[in-house]
Amino acid sequence: MAVESVFNRLLAELDDKFVGLDQCISKLHEVIKRFVKDREGGSAVVFGPKSSGKRSIISKVVMDYANDMEVVFIDGLILTSDVDALKILDASESNSEQLQFVIVFNFDQFVTRGRQTLLYTLLNASRSGFLFVLCVSSRQASFIDIDCIELLEKRVRSRLSNTFISFAQSSISFDDFSKAFATFLNTSTKKYKQNNGLIQEFIANECVERKLREVYDETRSYCILKQITAIFLCFMDAEHIESLASPHASRIFIEAKNAVVANEDTMKSIILSLTLRQLCLLLCCVRLARYQRRQDFIFREIILDYRKLVNKYLPTLNVKDDLILLKELDTLCTLTVLEEREQCGQLLFKRTSLQVDIDLVLNCVKEFTPLPTALIHWINDLER
């Protein structure tokens, strides 16, 4: 029989470790316990940026009550119509007296469809008892009222409660980030307690600390850090490493980090390999991020900005067909320079975000060859 390693044990424990989200978990438990106890329907809205742990925590918390209610999952990115979503509800096994907890991930996708039939049907049913609706959105806190709630029809909005659970975390310091990593590496299993005494020395390793700092600077995300930790533990176990004190541990951590977050050299190579049109589109994203202080934006905004840029500086790059530019933006997402934050029925309204450091882009542009003189003028204007 195979002997369990400390890293295999840590990987099993990692699933239950969440950092900085105790209040969210507590609020979720509070909402569900009240529903189960009072047997009265209701609703709540959960919001927060992508990779903030919403789906993982919600899925884990609700399953603690699986014996008390039927749990139904609906995802606006997977189900392309209200009809398809309603079929899932019709196929559920609940009877008229059984509690039903419906989780609508990416619920904002249903806001823009037709007459918001699914949301109205669910929220209306929640008012008569036995059904609770949890609406989950990956929009930023500052956009949730404008983009989602305010776009609801009056008949739908009036049926939605004012219970909000925010996964948007306050600013995270590097010290917080390092402590979270230590938490992920800490085991509660008595058999492996000696591992805990090696954690601080491992994190203090020059290579490990430098890579951890890179992850912090680029993401400031506990969720991303958790993904890197999971891969690190898998790699350590696969190579039959027995301790964090191993001279191979720092190398394996760097490999795990690079598997999740591309290093600067990789991203630089990607940027320098772009076509001139793709580079201009990327620069438009940089401008939107820098001057409008936006974390995300839609393809249509990028294209409008691109047309202003090329009309003034590079008319030869202008194209009449938006589809050509949309395909180029999709390519940038595939190359991980941009991240596609949400699927959308219309390509022009896809939401995306910049996944590369702004200064790195501007520095790479200066090495780009051949670089038209007109574009150099535009970049100089951008840096002022």
Q: What do we call the CATH homologous superfamily of the largest domain?
A: P-loop containing nucleotide triphosphate hydrolases
Radius of gyration: 24 Å
SSE order, as H and E? HHEHEHEHHEHHEHHHHHHHEHHEEHH
Q: How many extended strands?
A: 8
Structural class by sheet pairing and helices: alpha/beta
Largest sheet: 5 strands, parallel
Query: Which fold name is given in CATH as the topology of the largest domain?
Result: Rossmann fold
N→C terminal distance: 65 Å
Q: Return the CATH class of the largest domain.
A: Alpha Beta
Total number of distinct structural domains: 3
Which CATH-level-2 architecture of the largest domain? 3-Layer(aba) Sandwich
Protein name: Origin recognition complex subunit 4
GO molecular function, one term: DNA replication origin binding
Subcellular location: Nucleus
Family: Belongs to the ORC4 family.
